[in-house]
Amino acid sequence: MDDEKIIDLFFDRSERALEELARKHGGAVRNVASNFLRDRRDAEECVNDTWLAVWDAIPPQRPNPLLSWLCAVTRNLALKRYHANTAHKRNSFYDTALSELEESVPALETVETAVDARTLAASINAFLADCGEEDRFLFVRRYWFSDSVPYIAATLNCTPHRVSVRLYRLRGKLQAFLEKEGMTV
Questions:
Q1: Is 39 part of any domain?
Q2: Its pTM surpasses 0.90
Q3: Binning pLDDT at 50, 70 and 90, where does residue 112 land?
Q4: Which residues form the domain of 56?
Q5: Which of 9, 94, 120, 121 lies at a CB distance of 3.0 to 4.6 Å from 14, suitable for a disulfide?
Q6: Structural domains of the chain, count
Q7: Residues 131-137: contacts with CB within 8 Å, 24+ apart?
């Protein structure tokens, strides 16, 4: 069933909408939740929270594309649970991906944090727009979806070392780009 028909089922308030959504996009939603939450039970609860959030949001929303919107909802819910789970301890899975970016992306610790965050996001989007398709894929899968380097390597049918080197070079290019934009690290 295509995404438009699934959304129409939500507008009809048919429970079949959730069944069709889970059948078509459940794997992607579970993958995103699992990338952030290494505990199977937490990931499953996050998936269930996603389905509830979707049920509550559609209608009135009519997300397009549906899969991207679902992944963003799942990611946000997973991050909330991740932060709640790790409030007093360091969790190496997601923190590792973020720490890789620390040298390239400036810290936002001023009063103007919200404005700075939007400016930084726009700059990163501009940087990614200038990158090739595979570099954008690498960056987004690692730093947005928090995919592991071995998983990305398997997806691209290459070695983890190659992925690590490309990510390292991308971070260097990002740092140079941000410095050129006047954003200091």
A1: yes
A2: no
A3: low
A4: 3-85
A5: 9
A6: 2
A7: 131/170, 131/173, 135/166, 135/170
